[in-house]
Design a protein that fits this description.
- The protein has 14 helices and 20 strands.
- It is α/β, with parallel strands linked by helices.
- It has 3 domains: 1-81 and 163-264 and 438-486, 3-Layer(aba) Sandwich (Rossmann fold), CATH 3.40.50; 101-162; 270-435, 3-Layer(aba) Sandwich (Rossmann fold), CATH 3.40.50.2000.
- The strands form 3 sheets. It has an 8-stranded mixed β-sheet with strand order 3-4-2-1-11-12-13-14, with helices on both faces.
- The N and C termini lie far apart (73 Å).
């Protein structure tokens, strides 16, 4: 294997947790990590969710070189915490027989015991090892304070923290050691912590996966406001599209290093794809949640099916809170079929003629690119930020006005009625678009971003140290000037 084009150092991807089935952010994180690993740069995926399992650290079996998934709470469980000083006494263990104490387990192993408050949220927690001993105890101190205490197998205190953020930072310091490291932060939940994690040899990059747009023009949605006020604390902030980076630049000003890097996609071997005549129907692959607006796809296909033309089947893959409601909308149309989650979305898209994307917002719309790679033509609402940057209307797919169900149905009809040779040419155009997002190109882009972010971090660090030295000199001069004469 040739040497990696990525900068040398420890490469870490930080997120809150990895839920199954994967969402878009987790898919992008793991795909990027595999991309790095396949170039010879191992990646550690770090999770902070205290419900994470299994234990100990797990290596992704799909990677040819290491992509290791680690969880914060495995650190005290496996005895890796360095001893501290001035430790408080260990609190008594939570008794599962007490009212308000519940047991949380996974894979037949008790993971933690929790005492719930009146609001139903955890107040005190004991994180357990597989043998039942306490690895870490968390206790509320006062109205808002906390004490986290790592413990050895005999229950003795090992190290204490007064804030979870301090616990997180110590773990990262333990992993990084004295070497160079690159910390890519995907989760908006974790980003506020990462913004304050500043180390001389650690380069931090925050990847924005979703749309930032708030309800008013130029505003930022509430869930991102805290982090957007601190974008300068990261060495780089990466968006999936140039358009989103430009819009955020207009909001936050010139100081943060904003950049863009798309998601990679692999073309499906043309020899394995069906013939034009064999492709039938439409497909939706999305979470069945309000933001994906799958009801519009259902409504559009019902309009198509009310015509005298051919009945175009719609296959919907995904799970979510709106599954039952959507099924009711389509219950009298047997050409609309719900399949639940699929682990093979590429196979579903490779046999369909068109993909429908009806989201309210997207940061990129990776599913559009995956469809194109499979030769499946996308029909998408013209929303920020992905569709307009990927789809050339009438050449490699169709763009329709946002929220216009009638126009969505018209686009499906147009796809069905199009001359097969023209439709086949559009599929080739779609695959050509997808080829522009190859692994090699996206990895080179990441290499460039990480190097630029490292330079910026070192420059800023140097300026901070120079500023601190200057303040010390000024302080010395002032003290001398105000020193009483002898």
């Amino acid at each position: 294997m040739a040497g990696s084009d990525l900068p040398p150092g420890r490469h870490l991807a930080l997120t809150w947790g990895i839920a199954v089935p994967y969402g878009g952010m987790t898919t992008a994180l793991l795909d990027r990590s595999r991309l790095f690993a396949e170039a010879g740069t191992p990646v550690d995926v770090l999770t902070l969710d205290d419900r994470a399992f299994p234990l100990p650290p797990v290596t992704d079996p799909d990677a040819t070189t290491p992509v290791t998934i680690r969880n914060l709470y495995d650190w005290p469980r496996t005895g890796g915490v360095h001893p501290g000083t001035g430790l408080p006494d260990a609190p008594p263990a939570l008794d599962p027989a007490d009212d308000g104490v519940i047991i949380d387990e996974a894979n037949d192993v008790i993971l933690r015991r929790l005492r719930l408050g009146v609001d139903g949220k955890p107040v005190d927690i004991d994180h357990l090892r597989p043998d039942g001993t306490i690895a870490l105890s968390e206790r509320r101190v006062g109205a808002r304070g906390r004490l986290l205490l790592a413990r050895d197998a005999d229950g003795r205190p090992v190290r204490a923290w007064r804030r979870r953020y301090d616990f997180y930072a110590d773990w990262l310091d333990h992993l990084v050691g004295d070497g160079e490291a690159f910390l890519i932060v995907d989760s908006k939940t974790v980003a506020p912590f990462a913004a304050g994690y500043r180390r001389r040899r650690v380069t931090t990059v925050h990847v924005i996966h979703g749309s930032h747009r708030g309800p008013k023009p130029g505003s930022v949605r509430a869930s991102r406001q805290a982090v957007f006020s601190r974008l300068t604390d990261f060495d780089a902030v990466a968006f999936a599209t140039d358009a989103q980076a430009a819009d955020v630049r207009a909001i936050v000003g010139p100081r943060p290093f904003l950049t863009s890097v798309a998601h990679p996609v692999s073309l499906i071997d043309a020899a394995t794809l069906p013939t034009e005549a064999a492709r039938t129907g439409a497909v939706v692959i999305a979470r069945l949640e309000a933001i994906k607006r799958v009801e519009d796809a259902v409504a559009a296909m019902r309009l198509v099916h009310n015509d005298d033309g051919p009945r175009v089947p719609l296959d919907i893959y995904g799970t979510g809170s709106r599954a039952a409601e959507l099924a009711v909308l389509a219950e009298d149309d047997d050409a609309i079929r719900f399949h639940g989650h699929t682990d093979e979305p590429a196979a579903a898209m490779a046999t369909a003629s068109v993909l429908l994307l009806t989201s309210r917002s997207e940061a990129f719309g990776l599913v559009l690119l995956e469809a194109m790679a499979a030769g499946c033509l996308p029909i998408a609402y013209d929303i920020a930020y992905g569709p307009a940057e990927l789809i050339r209307h009438g050449e490699n797919g169709w763009l329709v006005a946002d929220g216009d169900v009638g126009a969505l149905a018209d686009a499906v009809r147009a796809a069905v009625e199009l001359d097969p040779a023209r439709r086949g040419a559009m599929r080739e155009n779609a695959r050509a678009t997808a080829s522009e997002y190859s692994d090699a190109r996206i990895r080179r882009r990441w290499a460039s971003i990480l190097r630029a972010a490292r330079r910026r971090g070192r420059t800023r660090g140097g300026l901070r140290r120079l500023s601190a030295a200057a303040r010390r000199v000024v302080g010395d001069v002032r003290r001398r000037l105000h020193r009483p004469a002898r």
